[in-house]
Amino acid sequence: MHRTSVLSAFAALFLADFAVRTAYMAGKSPVLPVFADQLGANEVILGAIVSVSTLTGMLSKPVFGMLSDRYGRWIWLMLGTALFAFTPLLYSGVTTTEDLVALRLLHGLATAIYGPVTLAFIADLDAGPKAELFGWFGLSRTGGYILGPLIGGLLLSYVSAPQVYACTSLIAVLAYIPVLSLRTGPRNAAKKHSATYQISELPSLLTRNRPLLGFGLVEMSSRVGLYAVKTFLPLMILAQGGTPLSAGVFLSVQEMAMAATRPLAGRLADRLRAPEKVAMAGLALMAAALVMVPSAKSADLLMLVAISIGIGNGAYHPAAMAMIARAAGTDATGFAFGIVGGMRNMGKLLGPIIGGALLFTLPHEYAFTVLALTTLGAMAPIMHQRSLIKNNQFG
Fold first, then answer.
1. Chain segment 273-299, per-residue pLDDT in tens
2. Which of the listed residues 172, 200, 228 is the one where a domain comes to its end?
3. Where does the chain cross the membrane (predicted)?
């Protein structure tokens, strides 16, 4: 694609993703827990309601990624945008916690489509190094994560939870404006086999494609420690006499450090033509920060941990996405990002579970050391990624 076309398509994808992510997060926190509590959900059911959309993505991202390889990206972006825009209107009919679980499953399909399809679209835009593109694109999701909860909390102060969801529908509808401009975006090569056949081949494709499995394990392992920290460190801060504000500041500083790092790390990975080195440096910094968590008693040390985790994650992510795109080639990027995204979701689910088990059975110093080693373990497949890609069997 011409450089101007690349930039215009990138801008359209960025704006669309920012709109739908903002809308989705506006309805997730704090609106979703409040709505579930009003319906009488206990702690177990509340956990299921919050996490069920992650489970949806874990199972369906590979399917939607593969279908976008076969039929093109645009049609699936249209479907995903429709789910983001119109599913929130159904919350007005929710009267039981069972209804809410079922609707969250449906709503989770929207993120399951947008995740692999937008990343594959970014990979399609430029044949050259693309870590910086992934770095900038990651800001759309970060922006939604920051702005969405603020909008949701503000709206919830004045209207009911179902009415908040109706408002988020209006935000998501705005994504149609940039998505419609992508109609002339890059097309995907036709596939020889039917979609049903390709979906049935998913398990064997995963086991045969060692680079894909390796990158999936990297994503899963790297998320375990990160999401354990997101879940338990705020509670540790409160237990040490900190305030809810200080816990919130920790998470916000982490997100801001990650946002500031992503484009710069992506550019560095492209300039060096060595995204694996940047990704491993990011993982090493995250692991070092995890080891520091138990001894971070003061506000200064907590901020150092937050900044280190944010910078490490910001360096790792765009480099990792560039490596996955490079490994997938040109015909299976949707499938690759779908599989890796599904395994990433598995790490998000396992992080709080593994972290909770470790903190329950071990002293905090040992628990976070194990989480740090899990993060470092993600470096092993990256060290061998060049030989893995050489034997790649995608497509």
1. 889 999 999 999 999 999 999 988 888
2. 200
3. 71-91, 103-122, 134-157, 163-182, 278-296, 302-323, 335-360
